[in-house]
Design goal:
about 500 residues, Alpha-D-Glucose-1,6-Bisphosphate, Chain A, domain 3, 3 domains, six-stranded mixed beta sheet, 16 helices, 21 strands, about 20% strand
Amino acid sequence: MTSQIPRADIQPNTLEYETLPLVKATGFREYDARWILEKEINLLGIQALGLGLGTLIHEQGVKPRIVVGHDFRSYSLSVKQALMLGLVSAGCEVLDIGLAVSPMAYFAQFDLDAPCVAMVTASHNENGWTGVKMGSDKPKTFGPEQIGPLKDIVLGGKGVERAGGVVHRVDGVRERYIASVSETRISRKLRVVAACGNGTAGAFAPQALERMGVEVIPMDTELDWTFPKYNPNPEDHEMLHAMAEAVKREGADLALGFDGDGDRCGVVDDTGEEIFADKIGLMLARDLSALHKNATFVVDVKSTGLYATDPILKANGATVVYWKTGHSYIKRKTAELGALAGFEKSGHFFFSKPLGYGYDDGLVAAAAVLQMLDRNPGKTLSELRQALPPAFTSLTMSPHAGDEVKYGVVDQVVKEYQDLAARGGEILGRKITEVITVNGVRVALEDGSWVLVRASSNKPELVVVVESMRSEDDMRDLFRNEVKPRLAAHPEVGRYNQEI
């Protein structure tokens, strides 16, 4: 028996809403699925997603044994239950691990010998959003090659019901996960602010960090799905500012911030200075490349250009590959190349054996930062930061652009920059040396500075990052006098979530 064909035009508080699946096609992103609950998908739509996912797993020839968890939002448990109903209808063996951060669900694939995972989470998206991070080939998660067929199955009503589905509630995974990520023991005395934004990581991070041997200063670690202070996103200025204030107030050695589903880590140093994740990645790559000669690292196109020129990485024989932004892309490329680690500017860190299992985990990243400090007992985190060559990188800025139009806008901007480069044009008096189009467009200038415009993979937004090798003022000029006016010429582009 196959499923009903979902519709995108069903309104809440109607008979149709209670009897038919609502699923908007735009919820299928490049490497996961996210919708605004009730407006873009209903629980019957989630059930259809589960049936479609189970059908795809069978079509892939993968053992239909799947770990399922949910993050701490008021509606996530209901969403997970609807998803599990669909998976059971598809004949899957469902292992329900309960409340979880995303890396705990990935860990459970190894812990419970399950090839598949479906983690119900909206990650760092605001309340109202829901979604699912999926995979069927650990430690990798779905990319476009899997999301495309899944979208076709769900929207086409091609989900197939099968007998034999079952749900097992599995206890004890949380304790084993915390024990696994806290195997690191830190001998140096460190005072660490653990910032969780009242998100799911609050149930994991303080305990894990304490087991590592550091003194933990908890900050917004109480679970509260209203997120009363700010959205748990360590890439947003509001959370970073709160972390910086806590470091100064407490005299802490650093602050570690975790997003809503615990797969990302943000860092503020002992002076209260935020260190963007690409710079933390460079510091870690310097540290790790001394221990693992000729290592390969993968970084995303939003990351600093210093990776390509760093003298310490060169001296240690390290290779750095720039790749598409997105946790699934970096995770897959890291596995494909057998890289030691992958770093993404949004705060996703991927550590391969012997450092980790290969998936993104905020707590494993936190442990790596603490180990780096442990190996440099005479230096503060700010001193390690200051040892990097100068580069002035912007916040990640996101102007609104509808899911239906954002890729078209980026295609136009790509062509504008390609045409500008072809006719020998300049940006703020500097020649264009390279136009990288692996993921949107990254325009490199003759002094090493660059600008990036790409479409967000999980929200109706564009993504803008600029970096100057000259000064912070020049970095601001690259945005204000180049990228911002260029995007303003496109009427589809709206307000920014934050600006420099």
